[in-house]
Design goal:
Blueprint: H1 3-11, E1 17-19, E2 22-24, H2 27-40, E3 46-53, E4 56-64, H3 74-86, E5 96-100
Antiparallel strand pairs: 1-2, 3-4, 3-5
Helix pairs in contact: 2-3
């Protein structure tokens, strides 16, 4: 089972919605997902940020860590970057975040 399948199976109940096949998590739950990725040794390739707009979620921003994805410490580097970015709140007043692993 790959990381995305493990996250989906274990944490889908925390997701507030699903958009384009991605589970959307609020900030506190997203930190839990990052912790799980760290435990699994997963690389966070990117994150998509979503805002509620009337009748659904719309993407407002994203991060792309693919440039550090090939470094020897890619897992630690991407986990640290993801955690730092959302440690206090989601950027751009986003309501939710999804992960590309």
């Amino acid at each position: 089972m790959d990381t995305e399948e493990i996250i989906r199976k274990k944490y889908s109940n925390l997701a507030v919605s699903e958009k384009a096949g991605e589970l959307l998590f609020r900030q506190p739950d997203a930190l839990t997902i990052i912790d799980e990725c760290e435990r699994l040794g997963a690389v966070v390739i990117g994150m998509n940020f979503w805002k509620w707009k009337g009748d659904g979620y719309m993407e407002v921003n994203s991060t792309d860590y693919s440039s550090i994805n090939t470094l020897p410490d890619a897992t630690k580097e991407t986990i640290d970057a993801a955690r730092e970015l959302i440690k206090d709140k989601l950027p751009d007043n986003a309501d939710c975040v999804s992960f590309v692993l």
